[in-house]
Amino acid sequence: MKWTDQGYWKSLLFYRQSVVYYWLLSARYRSFTWYAAANPGISHAGMLNEKKSEIYPLLPTAFLPPTRFLDSREAALVFVRSEEFSFPIVIKPNVGLKGIAVEVCHDLQEAEIYLEKSPRSEFIIQEYINLPREFAVLFYRVGDTEKGISSFIEKKYPQVTGDGIMTLHQLIDQHPHPYLQKNKWKKYYRDEKLEKGQHKLIHTIGNYSQGASFHSLQSEIDSQMLEGVLSCMDQIEGIDFCRLDVKAHSIEKLKEGDFKIIEVNGGKSEPLHIYDTNTSFFKACRDIHRHWVKYTRVVNYHLSRGFRLLTTAEGVRALKQIKQVVKNKDK
Fold first, then answer.
1. Burial of 142 (0-12, 13-18, 19+ CB in 10 A)
2. What is the DSSP-derived secondary structure letter of residue 166?
């Protein structure tokens, strides 16, 4: 199923095309770590091995759910057992990639199982944001001269619809998304027959790698949306190229600046609208090119203001660390 999925090929396209741009730009900037200039406030600009515990303190608390950083499994277990945060809660690793190991825990038992099985030692724990819609906004800023939104999508969670004949497990087996972890969710839910037309939401984690789908809303990008996003970003220093994963009641509320941030991705952010099935490969190639043009404009701005690039050795160390994250992604 993955081989026939557009998302698989577009992800590969983004990676391969970006690698070409990386080497060309490394020659242009005479540095292998030129990318780090995009976000001076984040290690490696959020391209490699950035820690969420470095990013969240930069964000206005009014736009965040209650959040706690725990630097050991034991401390995380003590915290969840204290029930300072009401369930459900979200637990994620301090260093992540594409939603790896993000889990919504609905009770203490689920949280304890997650933490006891995890090979990681640092965690971010947040209260779950119970807002109906999830969006991703790719924002960029070149000083005070240029600010914009280059990608805007809605994330739809995987669900099944009953036909009055098949059981829930059978419906999950037939779900078309190739990255939905079907065996995991069949173990989670009791097998039962759904009534015809009855909908069942499988989970509410908005990651493609866990079965969510991305729907382009490029036509909604306008000056009002930019103003809504700037109500948050104008309070942040050191992050000028990022993707905000947010929840809101509606697009209109987001444009009013009424939203909550669930994740901030730095330099490795992708223009997620390319994953919409209506976005052609030709348009995806063109938009990836535009993506890196904007990125380099932000880099140029900070280099002109004296930003010191990282050494190649620092870049290699970060690359090794993020490879270890990917190696443990299924644990």
1. middle
2. S
Structure confidence by residue, pLDDT tens digits, 238-270: 999 999 999 999 999 999 999 999 999 999 999
CATH topology of domain 66-128: Dna Ligase; domain 1 (3.30.1490)
Domain(s) labelled CATH 3.30.1490.20 in the chain stretch across: 66-128
- Cβ neighbours for 272, distance < 8 A, ≥ 6 positions apart: 136, 138, 151, 153, 214, 243
Q: Are 16 and 294 in contact (CB under 8 A)?
A: no
Residues of the chain with pLDDT under 50: none
Residue 81 φ/ψ region, left for φ over 0, alpha for ψ in the -120 to 50 degree band, beta for the rest: alpha
In sequence order, the β-bridge partners of residue 92 are 124
Helix, strand, coil % in the chain, rounded to nearest 5: 45, 20, 40
Phi, psi for 280 (deg, rounded to 5): -70, 165
C-alpha to C-alpha distance for 144 and 2, rounded to whole angstroms: 42
